[in-house]
Amino acid sequence: MNKLNVILINSKKNKFIFNSTNNFINYIINIDNISHYSTNKKINKINNIINIYDNINYVNIIFYNISNHIIINKIITIFNNILYSFKKKYYYNIMFLNKNYNLTKLIEPSNIIKELNIYKTIVLDPNKNPITYLEYIKLRKPTDYNINIFNTKTTDLFPLTNAVGMGSKYDSYFIHISPINNNLNKNLFLIGKGITFDTGGLNLKKGYFGDMKIDMIGSAIILSVLNLLVINNIKTNYNIHLLLPIAENMIGNNAIRPGMVIQTISNKTVEIINTDAEGRLCIADSIEYILKFLKKSNNDIILDIATLTGNVDHISSGISCLSTSNNKGSSFLDKLIKIGEDTGEYLDKIIIRNEYLDILSSNVADIKNISEEFKADCIIASAFLNYFINDIVPWIHIDLGCCIYKNNIPTSYGINLLYEFIKQIE
Predict the structure, then answer these.
(1) pTM for this structure?
(2) Residue at a domain's end among 53, 77, 106
(3) What is the structure's pLDDT at 378?
(4) 114 is catalytic
């Protein structure tokens, strides 16, 4: 057997008669109420089938009488999480089987699989650095988009990002990707953290941190989302902008020291209490750059996504990621959470209270980047970012934690979530 034929059914809507003598079918999966967290529990049997039949070269994923594109894309991303973990690469066919047993090939999910493979390959590259990652981004930029690249050493626009990368032998960069035809009256600014390796700096991480090569996942997610929108010819109601702060957080003679104070382009001052709380510094730079140079109206939206704090995993046990917003962004966040329920990429909401800013008060600066006493760092990181955005424009923050990296393989979490969100927002 060189083909694995998997029939997907929704038990609430479909009844599929399985004939054991029919060699066309190898495995039937009920996709009702499946999520990224429950992936392994729901479809681990695929691993067993592949391990038994070493000569499988083709995987046919067949949806039986299921036309909802959100469900289809959800299952495709989940299957990719399992099949990507095998060293042997398989050819995919994404098919739709109607009640008359006629097969039709689906194009858009095939694009998603291709994009997920590209995304996971760059995330897992152990030798990437700010220079090689910059080249990757330049190659992946859609042709109808501009790219503006800043070296943080030769500009004063991104002092926090520059501080993060001071200990590295590589330069740090800030990248702005924008549409050539910027002809819509609303803008969606997507910020993705791009730390190519995170040692924690002089606040060196404890224990094993060989997986810190994945700390650029936020930036890789939004780049893949943009490519999916372009490849699938999706028309949106917003001009899509990507803001990608790229740096390597290393320990060294030139590394930023705990206690140093950095002034931002809006003249706010930040005390760096902990150099391992570096992602929020890069995102704060991005927010300030947007507000000063790019924002056109208060109808614009800012959304940042990052592997920001491991604290997320302590709260959700990897079942969901955490999110927050300012007041203007609350309705957009509610929509995003609803989409997460549909795609199986769960988001839980936390509330930023004014009291949290008191915890971040500094004796030598306007704000400090972390509180060593306050244990819920995911909340403190959100409060820190909210200090820079306040309630000027709608803002959403997504903290991925580490739950998007399982069994040494990045999951596809976040790509389908943002892809659907951008398609649906008005």
Answers:
(1) 0.92
(2) 106
(3) 93
(4) no
